[in-house]
Amino acid sequence: MTSGPTAVVGRVRRAHGIKGEMVVALQTDAPDAVFAPGARVFVGTPDDELAPDPKTGALREFVVATARDFQDGLLVRFEGIADRTAAERWRGISLHVPMDELEPPAEGELWVHELPGMRALDPKGVVLGDVRSSYELPQGLVLEIETPRGLRDVPFNDAFVVGFDRERREITLDVPAGLLE
Span 43-67, mean pLDDT? Predict the structure, then answer.
């Protein structure tokens, strides 16, 4: 059971094969630790909220039986999920781990869940807007910024992200003229 905050570490894309394996898209830099045999993850909704059992109210926990590399993610089999039909039931769910069980981000890094709500500034300190959310594309992470002119997307990469201040909840972006217009 977890009482503290959790981080999303993966998402079940689909069932694979007939023995209950699932294709998991990774949202962690430490898949070997997070999805090691015997490790536990908690079941979440497709919207990244924890999903308690509707009957008991308890958080649903999966224990990793096996995990192996597959394309850009992993093939994971969880204890108690023995066939494709059982695995298909979990398509689209998010997988969570308690934050206190994860290595903290290294200096100069953020967890993705920290981005929403950060104030976006230009290099001169002028407010551009607020980070509303982020999403993953094959090319990388994209920030959705709420600006006075509406939602705008900015790639989260070294070309655009100058820096951030975790304590002040600010992220500095150097975007080309017109990108946020």
Answer: 93
**pLDDT at residue 1 is higher than 70:** no
Sheet holding 150-155, edge to edge: 150-155, 140-147, 127-137, 119-121, 170-173, 161-165
- CA 22 – CA 80 distance, rounded (Å): 13
For residues 69 and 72, the model is more confident at 69
pTM of the model: 0.71
Q: What residues have CB less than 8 Å from 180, skipping those under 6 apart?
A: 128, 129, 145, 147, 149, 152, 154
Do the Cβ atoms of 126 and 158 come closer than 8 Å? no
Instruction: Enter the tokens of residue 38.
Output: 């015997």
> What's the CATH fold of domain 6-101?
Elongation Factor Tu (Ef-tu); domain 3 (2.40.30)
- 112-173: CATH topology is SH3 type barrels. (2.30.30)
